[in-house]
């Protein structure tokens, strides 16, 4: 028995060691980011892998002013919150209708949405800009939110669709017997049960929208509308790259979403597991 136990322990220890090494590999970019964010420009160029010998905290103050960080933060916050609310609200209702009314039209629509998940964004950039421009919302926060709603709907509906299948229909039927309308059944019975997948969808979409650079760069041109990724990119010119300011700007930009992720990460596995494999 002891020999068998040892045979199981050795592969387990090797697996844990491999996972630790893999985690360290993924943490290396964060080391370079944090270590170089408090160095002078010359120190970054001379040896970017070395620990800082003198902490130049003024980099953060200069990056804060150069990016107009409070304004860029507010822009990113408005876009992220509004996009998440619309995606969660509209896609949950759409997925619920597709599951409970399993008509040919709804099945085709669901298949089309799932198929859209494999289309790379680069393939639809030009049509997207043309549509946003045609709607008259180019270079507006509303236009950017609308673009996120359209591009984020397929994945969001997919997750909600799988989760709704796990909701017992008997609960809804009992609600209807008590005289509840279809909308009342959804908002009072079904929506509260969807809390795990709603939180998961919000986390995943927040990580995507907050850090996205390409979509805002296509739709927003006015400096006052810049989100954090666009504001940070201003440090990279054609001939100069202000690494001593860009790196602190990146740290400032990712800190809110990292804190948000750490606070909400316990919901991710539960929500994805229930939303992707059920039914």
Automatic annotation (TrEMBL):
Keywords, alphabetical: Cell membrane, Membrane, Transmembrane, Transmembrane helix, Transport
Top-level division of the source organism's lineage: Bacteria
InterPro entries, sorted: MetI-like (IPR000515), MetI-like_sf (IPR035906)
One Pfam family hit: BPD_transp_1
Record's bilayer topology term: Multi-pass membrane protein
Compartments it resides in: Cell membrane
A GO biological process held by the record: transmembrane transport
CDD domains: TM_PBP2
Transmembrane region(s): 12-34, 72-96, 108-132, 144-164, 185-210, 245-264
Gene3D superfamilies xref list: MetI-like (1.10.3720.10)
Domain ABC transmembrane type-1: 73-264
Gene Ontology cellular-component annotations: plasma membrane
Family: Belongs to the binding-protein-dependent transport system permease family.
Protein name per its UniProtKB record: Carbohydrate ABC transporter membrane protein 2, CUT1 family
């Amino acid at each position: 028995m002891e020999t068998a136990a040892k045979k199981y322990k050795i592969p387990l220890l090797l697996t844990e060691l491999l996972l630790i090494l893999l985690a360290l590999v993924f943490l290396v970019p964060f080391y370079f980011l944090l270590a170089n964010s408090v160095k002078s420009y010359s120190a970054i160029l001379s040896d970017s892998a070395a620990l800082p010998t003198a902490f130049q905290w003024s980099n953060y103050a200069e990056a804060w002013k150069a990016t107009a960080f409070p304004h860029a933060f507010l822009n990113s916050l408005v876009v992220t919150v509004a996009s998440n609310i619309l995606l969660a609200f509209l896609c949950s209702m759409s997925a619920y209708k597709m599951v409970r009314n399993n008509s040919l039209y709804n099945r085709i629509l669901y298949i089309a949405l799932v198929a859209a998940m494999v289309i790379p964004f680069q393939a639809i950039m030009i049509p997207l800009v043309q549509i946003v421009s045609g709607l008259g919302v180019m270079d507006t926060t509303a236009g950017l939110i609308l673009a996120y709603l359209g591009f984020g709907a397929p994945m969001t509906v997919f997750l909600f669709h799988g989760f709704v299948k796990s909701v017992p229909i008997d609960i809804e039927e009992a609600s209807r017997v008590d005289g509840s309308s279809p909308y009342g059944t959804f908002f009072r019975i079904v929506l509260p049960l969807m809390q795990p997948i709603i939180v998961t969808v919000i986390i995943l979409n927040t990580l995507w929208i907050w850090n996205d650079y390409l979509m805002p760069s296509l739709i927003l041109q006015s400096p006052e509308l810049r989100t954090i990724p666009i504001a940070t990119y201003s440090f990279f010119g054609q001939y100069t790259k202000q690494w001593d300011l860009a790196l602190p700007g990146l740290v400032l930009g990712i800190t809110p979403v990292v804190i948000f992720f750490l606070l909400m990460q316990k919901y991710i596995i539960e929500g994805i597991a229930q939303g992707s494999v059920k039914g």
